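CHAIN AND CONFORMATION:

***
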Amino acid sequence: MKATVAVIRCENYQIENVRVAVQRGIQLLGGVSAFARAHEKILLKPNLLSGSRPEKLVTTYPTVFQAVAEVFKATGANMFYGDSSGMGSLERVARQAGIKEVADNLGIRPADFQTVAPVSFPGALLAKQLRLAAAVLEADGIISIAKMKTHGFTRITGAVKNQFGCLPGLQKAEFHVKMPDVYDFSRVLVDINSYLKARLRLFIMDGIVAMEGNGPSGGEPAAMKVLLFSTDPVALDAVFCRLIDLDPEFVPTMKFGEESGLGVYKPDEIQIIGDDIEPLINKNFQVVRRPPERLASARSFPTFLKNRISPRPVINYERCINCGNCVQMCPVTPKAVDRPDGDKNKKPIYDYKRCIRCYCCQEICPEKAITIKIPLLGRLIY
């Protein structure tokens, strides 16, 4: 059978419009009763990358979260929500993102995303051992509410990558150190989803206003006017790619997701229902349209040459407010980005010989001060 993805047009974030779109998308996939029942523990997993205001479009928009929460709360399920943010506690980040107020009004409590629960996964592509947030394993069902954004490392942040937030604490940074190659890292993303497959009941993507360019936190708004729904995260991400005219072959989680049995991504394996997708396609969407660099190929060059050809994060010091988030998030020791001489009055600088190109610094920068650039020699090669 083909994977089914519901494409629902939604003009804006007004709650009345979002409610109609969410209800329609879920109904097209069989109705809410297909995904939750009374008294079940249902975890809502939004994208809460950082404590950014809703209008910055870094996180799942509050009205999308609200509309989804209302639908599932009506089933009589026991609802809770959570994500492991890059910076700060769940409640603080959720409050800043506008999610906490919505959850509080609906009586939906924050989940335990601090306690670590170790699990074994012998069938994994790569990550045979995982340490997940306790709340994820306590849930009977998970509703994943991703945000439509670009990503400097994996090309897109979508339905598959949203479950990276199921790793609590500093583990996300640790995985970047352990898996600096984007293809290995993508295998880990697939492994997390595959382990949780029995619990992951529905994937929803907020693409009403997406983020293009320097995502996942420093990009620009792009009105895509769409919500996506599917039980297959790989197929949903493939439709996201189609909407932005990106070859899904350039997103490593696609092939690995198919290989693991997580989902499918080829057009003839996906049935699109709902609204006509063609008018929603944005061929001018700003995204890198080439495969990510393989670490192995970079290693084949001497270090001095690699640093002159590989894409790398660059700080715009006119934008930089010297908040230190990039230093805090850098996962390597010694830091690849740090303040000179440890002086907090000085703005951070890079030592590219230490940089593993995980782009955690770029991902967490609140001022869009860090971008990914290819050196001149690299541009000639790429």
Remarks:
- The chain is about 30% helix and 20% strand.
- The mean pLDDT is 93.
